[in-house]
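Task: sequence in, structure out. Protein: Class I SAM-dependent methyltransferase.
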Amino acid sequence: MARKPRLAAGRARALGVPTRGTTNPNRLRRVDRWMTGTLTGFLLDAADPLVVDLGYGATPITTVEMATRLRAVRPDVRVLGLEIDQDRVDAGKAVAAPPFLDFRRGGFELAGARPVLLRAFNVLRQYTEEQSFEAWDTMLSRLAPGGLIVEGTCDEIGRRCTWVTLSADGPLRFTLACKPSGIDVPSDLAERLPKALIHKNVPGERVHALLTELDACWATAAPFAPFGPRARWVESARLLRERGWPVLDDRRRWRLGEITLEWAAVAP
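Result:
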């Protein structure tokens, strides 16, 4: 039987285990751009704009970048970076600017914080599928009322990403994001599927059907290639919607290399 995430030793009783810690500047730029572009109203409406960045890694750079980007939307946003590894917390403290940017030791229990928005990227890949669902439940139970989680995975330089947006009601949306010039076919993103989906990319599962259909749309959109990979991606998104998939947003976001769908389209 798979072992459940343990409580890390220490007074903080942080729930989880340390990640590898790999991070790079701008690695999470695509999810940050999506949050600032699609969650603007959500952030502006928040009574207490506390945002948590869970498991930021060996350096706090991506937390600092997120705080800077969110501040352009909500100047009084407060960002809290959480890590289980105390050395990583200490690295964060060196660049902290409380109360608007701070760092603390914590895991899935969120160290007592009640954020309206939680970003958890490249955190759950080391867990089993069952453990990842348990982590979802734990984090959701710690959010402020009406809060959201953005949980996903990306490659080391942030050119291939996928994520799930969740509320207390469960998963809401699924997003694929990439640099279109950096893929051969959209299904290249399969290696970066979140834990809840990565083992479901097999025939008979919805996420496999989505990636297969998106590859077909990409092939059909080949005549757009002379206008650049972004134009081909936009046409692929349009075709995917035309074929009955619940694709959200419009060309403005598709041109950024994004496709967001209702979660029901990929739910296991």
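Strands lie at 50-54, 78-83, 101-105, 117-121, 148-154, 160-167, 170-178, 258-262.
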